[in-house]
Write a structure and sequence with these properties.
By secondary structure, the protein is α+β, with helices and mostly antiparallel strands. It is built from 7 helices and 10 strands. The protein binds a DNA duplex through loops.
Length: 277
Amino acid sequence: MPELPEVEVVRKDLERDVVGKRVKEVDVRLPRIIRRHAAKKEFTSRLIGRKISKVDRRGKYILLSLDSGDVLVMHLGMSGHVERTTGRKALEKHTHAIIKFQVGGELRFVDMRQFGELFVTGGDEIAGVKELQHIAIDPLEDSFTWQHFSESLASRRTKLKALLMDQKFISGLGNIYSDEILWASGLRHDRASDTLSAQEVRRLYRAMQEVLQEGVRFRGVTLEDETYKDLYGKTGEMQDHLKVYGREGQPCRRCRTPIERARWSNRSTYYCPQCQV
DNA sequence: GTTTAACCCTGCACGC
DNA sequence: TGCGTGCAGGGTTAAA
């Protein structure tokens, strides 16, 4: 399930590989994946003939700017990935959209569970786009300071995990990385956000930077039953470095206590009952 | 303001 | 072996 590190890996690959490429043809095979246009024709017509000028990320959204001023917005949902390939390769199952370039192959949007989405919007309208306007500060941004984080935490009264996964609070974290960050900082998922000492806030802040940077360095998490891959079909390696996620019953890597799993609104949370307080 | 449930969809495990 | 049922999984949003 792509979270900030996975999306950042894809963004970086796209930046290196498709900036400067001009779109020749667009093939939408599953129209419902285009969320903001009733007609897929508008989607394709705003892309064809346009050159990709830069690739940004906002939370888990990837923004491909076009030389027309429009922006192609992409979200990988839970099971999506982007494949960079030549047109000759056989289509992978669940390929929902194909963007062909004039020179140099094509991009394929593949998403088994169809929770991902694509749409085009005007660059000047982007601030008002419903999907993007609520996205909070990025934890890897320079402006995300310890002071900023500390004040935001204190202003809320929620369980830590819910807060970390709230895209309106901080952007980019999902189930896996929030569990890993909480383990690394020695804090429980159900700890109230306004009860943290200054030292605990600092630990959480630091863990966030370290875990996310590690995730990017290992090119993301690809679990056994999941489909995340980079642009070239390679799986990530971060799954081999996870400390708690998916390790129910196995000994904590810090204190050997068996890792427990809690259910929280139909989602799993993994934590060490001993060393996370 | 905070918490919970439902929805989106496919693949798979399970029981018969 | 085949079929039907139920459910996991994450992000978002609506409702409580």
